[in-house]
Amino acid sequence: MKVAMFADSFYPMIDGAVVAMENQSKGLEARGHEVVVLAPDTKQRPKTTRTVHYLPSMEFRWYKGYRVVVSASDMLERLRQEKVDVLHCHGLASMAILSLTAARALKIPHLITFHTMANEAVKYYSPLPIRQDMIEPMVWLYLRNMLKRSEVVIAPSQPIKDELLDNGVKMQACEVIPTGVDCKRFTPENYDKGFLARYGLEGKRVVLHVGRLSLEKRLDTVLEAMVSLAREEPDLRLLVAGHGPSSEHYKAMAKSLGVSDRVVFAGFMSDDELAKAYASVEMLVIASTFETQGLVVLEALASGTPVAGIRYRAIPEFVKEGKNGCLFEQSTCAEAVRRCLSRSKSMKINALASAREYSIDSCTARLEMAYSLASDILAKNL
Q1: Are 335 and 310 in contact (CB under 8 A)?
Q2: Which residues contact 219 (CB under 8 A, 6 or more apart)?
């Protein structure tokens, strides 16, 4: 089977959708399938062994790093030459429209993964000066119209499927398929006794935060928790891995809260360095209410590292209180970090076991079934 993956965001940009698409592509290729990618063009085209067809694009200036396709005149011809069997879109914006248009023209099945809570993202990055209470219903109107047209919608977690249904989204089929985690890449064996020293954290108890530094990721909740934690845990430090449009905002916030000496902003980490980070710290913390899955949670768990996560949307699907981590409300982040630190060693085995349920191979098998379902639905509709 040859699968065409459509991406709203693509390298050198790295976000959850990009990582998800990469993991799924590797999983499909390992099972004998072929993957080609269609993505917005960029000046920095990364080296890849996979075929990537770039479409002319322009920068989306309201969200640095993202690009919007402005022309797709030869898209259909490229897809015909590739002789693809399935179109799988990993975005909800311009590429969703283009991929659906291509699927209808070529009469091949279309799937779309709902990676992003677009109804919430719009309040941070809308190019239009429209009130939130007005623009959010417009986004849901768009989503209902878009998602009903795809043969299969993939929700990365059950809470996201439920939320779509609760908001009146009618789909031909919706399958819950998490993005698989690479348990060979993320493992406790990546522990590096020199890792913390490289960031000036040797001998400290370190809490890790991983993710794009943007407002919707709610790093502010973690920084505020560090204020009270600092009084009780003098050796506690927060290591922040990632960068993004709100990097300077969060650095200024750490300074204004008086915890800048307890927070290390490491910026972008390479794949190898990130794997070592997960395995070398005490725990991961995630306060984002934006997650449709939160792949960083599974990456930490696969590394044998427990997680303190907010009790919202997809996070409780993967973090189980007292077993592989701790859950919190927005106002109780500090307390959850305390609980997690006190039991981190005893939760490591459970963390590792829970991640193995979501290996790339097992999730790819479910994805293959979704592709088959999409083909069956299309055949009935033709």
Answers
A1: no
A2: 209, 211, 213, 240, 246, 250, 287
Q: Are the C-beta atoms of 281 and 239 separated by less than 8 Å? A: yes
Amino acid in position 273: E
Residue 214 or residue 190, greater confidence? 190
Residue 259 near residue 230, CB atoms below 8 Å:
yes
Burial degree of 258 (CB within 10 A; 0-12, 13-18, 19+): exposed
Closest-CA residue to 8 (of 69, 49, 79, 87): 69
Residues comprising the chain, all counted: 382
* Rounded-to-integer distance, Cα 74 and Cα 284, Å: 44
In what helix (H) or strand (E) does residue 113 lie, and over which residues does it extend?
strand 110-113
Is the pTM above the cut of 0.90? no
Tokens of residue 68, six digits = 């919007």
Domains and CATH numbers, the chain: 2-180+360-381 (3.40.50.2000), 188-356 (3.40.50.2000)
- Poorest-confidence range of 68-82, 163-177, 231-245? 68-82
Question: Which of these, 73, 103, 74, lies nearest to 86 by C-alpha position?
Answer: 103
Give tens-digit pLDDT for 199-233.
Answer: 999 999 999 999 989 888 999 999 999 999 998 89
Q: Distance between CA atoms of 136 and 148, rounded to whole angstroms? A: 18
- Listed in sequence order, the residues at least 6 apart from 343 whose beta carbon sits closer than 8 Å to its beta carbon are 306, 322, 326
Instruction: Classify residue 211 by its DSSP letter.
Output: S
Helix, strand, coil percent content, the chain, rounded in steps of 5: 45, 20, 35
